[in-house]
Write a structure and sequence with these properties.
The complex is a heterodimer of chains A (330) and B (278). By secondary structure, chain A is α/β, with parallel strands linked by helices. Chain A has two domains: 222 residues, Rossmann fold (3-Layer(aba) Sandwich), CATH 3.40.50.300; 68 residues, Alpha-Beta Plaits (2-Layer Sandwich), CATH 3.30.70. Helices cover 36% and strands 26% of the residues of chain A. In chain A, the strands form three sheets. Chain A has a six-stranded mixed β-sheet, sandwiched between helices. In chain A, strands 2-1-4-5 form a four-stranded antiparallel β-sheet. Chain A starts with 10 loop residues before the first strand and ends with a helix. Chain B has one domain. Helices cover 72% and strands 0% of the residues of chain B. Chain B contains eleven helices and no strands. In chain B, helix 10 crosses helix 11. In chain B, 44% of the residues are buried. Classes of the chains: A alpha/beta (330), B mainly alpha (278).
Chain lengths: 330, 278
């Protein structure tokens, strides 16, 4: 997505050196970020990186140990009520009531936004239609499919027509089609001018939705930029090969080092080696030739686009999967 | 961008100009309005779990029938018939055990994402608790009405006038409401539904049985009477019984009201503190 035309440089979300410790567990270790009006900012990171903690702090659910958060220029922890009327929160850290109908859920949220009974009802109807849930409006949410559930949850966060929407892993666990539907809904909201702070574990989701990304690991932002900038940093495609015989790992590594454009990374557990390549076809052919010349039998030879793992690899030197929860690390 | 099924109906939307802003409410009005909204939500939860409602109704009926027919014949409770003696006790016992649902309900809510939604809304935070306790108190009205109805069928009668009869009903409800705050604190403190389920019976059993609920405390050993004669359940049962059938009302009623006020203050404060922590 193209970033909207700049209307002055106005940060609507500002986090300044936010730290959050739970006892000895350091969930956030000094995070600063700015999100402009109308921008989609993606927080990308593995489980336990601190994404949800940061969203919960910005949404006024949790107080930071230190640091300052401004939403729409208002301090989120000195004047949380003013911030709450401007934001909508959905995703894994928000939810709806199973035993209530879709309509009841939205009406209750509307009432709690301090709308009149009639206004809460009008807004509920509007959102049900927008989320294509009008037919299911009077069914209990427990009868909804996974996708409908996410839509009513997203809908609940829209009742107050928030300027700032915070979506915490909005599509985790959804099937590809439902995920795509939800992306389209999010695109629409962004097109209407909503500022969006999004957390995700998936690079493709960040790529699809975000104008700017912050890569978060162990409670720190370790890289920031547009998706293109980050991918450039990764060196684009990676060539991967695995020997049929584990004893040949070092020979495979040597060949990849010679055809690739960077340091090869050896994944002992999966018994594969990968290396960044500038030209995928040339490198693949060169590697194929080299393996042929040395009569090496392979179990895997492929070129892949960068994944979240690769982002982590390039920036931190370890894979996202290797990362442990900060709780376990401390 | 392609339009999919999920988005193509969203054309006839409310425009920003058609939207009404939120109502301007001061803190107290907001608290009361939000309490009403949260009470409605919790009452909807109650009625949509028919098994919970049915069990909540069956157990007091069972207790009335069992205690009356099993113990009634061999129990000497002074001038009152046993059913007249028993009904106020069963009513207090029911609100005592019913409070467990408050603890379970809150622990359930706290364990689910929905509490985060409430916390992200510009609502009165206290309303999550006050809406829960109000809904459970409302349930007490229904269970106690059922108990009285069953009591009437098997011989219970008010004999001290309609005014005191209503008063006794309200006193039991007030005590039940105070107790729900103690259970609210328990639910917030223990967090897990399983732990709460196991724990709610611990205070409820000694408090309802070592009391004037089912038998006069004078028949209990001296060491137990130190506890049973002075604890809140006995005061409330004695007051309700006197209001229903005559006798010394003032003493136990004043002590009951003091207990209710004390429980409300202490556990109201502790619950709010615990909720804010989370």
């Amino acid at each position: 997505m193209k970033r909207p035309v700049e209307t002055g440089h106005q940060a609507i979300i500002q986090a300044e050196n936010v730290v959050k410790h739970y006892g000895d567990v350091h969930a956030l270790n000094g995070i600063s970020l700015e999100v402009d009006q109308g921008e989609v900012y993606g927080l990308l990171g593995p489980n336990g990186a601190g994404k949800t903690t940061l969203v919960r702090i910005l949404a006024t659910l949790v107080k930071p140990t230190s640091g300052r958060c401004l939403v729409g220029g208002v301090d989120a922890h000195q004047n949380p009520m003013a911030v709450r009327s401007q934001i909508g929160l959905a995703g894994q850290s928000a939810a709806v009531d199973d035993l209530l109908t879709g309509r009841e859920n939205l009406e209750i949220v509307g009432r709690l936004y301090q709308f009149s009974r009639a206004e809460a009802r009008r807004r509920a109807d509007d959102i049900l239609e927008r989320m294509s849930l009008t037919d299911a409006a009077d069914r209990q949410v427990r009868t909804y499919s996974g996708g409908m559930r996410r839509r009513i949850d997203l809908g609940a966060s829209l009742v107050g027509r928030p300027e700032v929407l915070m979506l915490d892993e909005p599509t985790t666990g959804l099937d590809p089609r439902t995920r795509n539907d939800l992306w389209q809904l999010i695109h629409q909201l962004v097109a209407e001018g909503t500022t969006l702070l999004l957390t995700t574990q998936y690079l493709d989701e960040a790529d699809e939705l975000a104008h700017r990304l912050g890569v978060i690991d162990q409670g720190k932002i370790i890289a920031e930029g547009t998706p293109d900038e980050l991918k450039e940093r990764l060196g684009g495609d990676r060539l991967q090969a695995g020997p049929a015989n584990p004893a040949d790992m070092s020979r495979v590594t040597a060949i990849l080092a010679s055809v690739g454009d960077g340091e090869p990374y050896v994944d002992e557990r999966r018994q594969v080696v990968s290396v960044p390549v500038a030209d995928r076809i040339t490198s693949l052919l060169a590697a194929g030739q080299a393996f042929e010349d040395e009569s090496l039998t392979l179990s895997d030879l492929s070129v892949s686009r960068p994944s979240l793992d690769d982002v982590f690899l390039a920036i931190t030197g370890k894979t996202a999967e290797d990362d442990t929860e900060p709780g376990a690390a401390a | 961008m392609t339009t999919t099924d999920a988005t193509q109906h969203g054309s006839a939307k409310l425009t920003a100009a058609q939207l009404e802003p939120p109502l301007k409410r001061n803190g107290l009005v907001r608290f009361l309005a939000d309490t009403a909204t949260m009470t409605r939500r919790n009452v909807l939860y109650l009625v949509r779990r028919p098994q919970v409602v049915v069990f909540a109704l069956i157990s007091p009926i069972m207790f009335v029938a069992l205690f009356n027919y099993v113990f009634g014949g061999s129990m000497s409770v002074g001038e009152l018939s046993y059913i007249d003696f028993l009904i106020p006790g069963i009513m207090v016992q029911t609100v005592m055990f019913g409070g467990g649902n408050t603890a379970i309900g809150l622990a359930e809510d706290m364990g689910r994402g929905v509490i985060d939604r409430f916390r992200s809304l510009p609502m009165s935070r206290l309303a999550v608790l006050s809406g829960r306790t109000a809904a459970d108190a409302a349930r007490g009205i229904i269970t106690n009405t059922v108990i009285l109805t069953v009591g009437f069928v098997i011989g219970f009668r008010f004999s001290n006038g309609i005014g005191w009869a209503i008063g006794s009903f309200l006193l039991v409800l007030l005590f039940g409401y105070s107790i729900t705050w103690a259970y609210a604190w328990m639910g917030l403190k223990l967090k897990s539904v399983e732990a709460v389920q196991a724990a709610t019976f611990l205070p409820a059993f000694p408090l309802t049985f070592a009391a004037s609920t089912f038998a006069p405390v004078t028949g209990m050993p001296d060491w137990l009477q130190v506890f049973s004669a002075n604890q809140p359940v006995t005061q409330v049962v004695d007051a309700a019984r006197a209001m229903m059938h005559g006798g010394d009302i003032a003493g136990p009623l004043v002590r009951s009201l003091l207990w209710c006020a004390g429980i409300l203050l202490v556990f109201g404060f502790l619950s709010v503190r615990e909720y804010r922590k989370g």
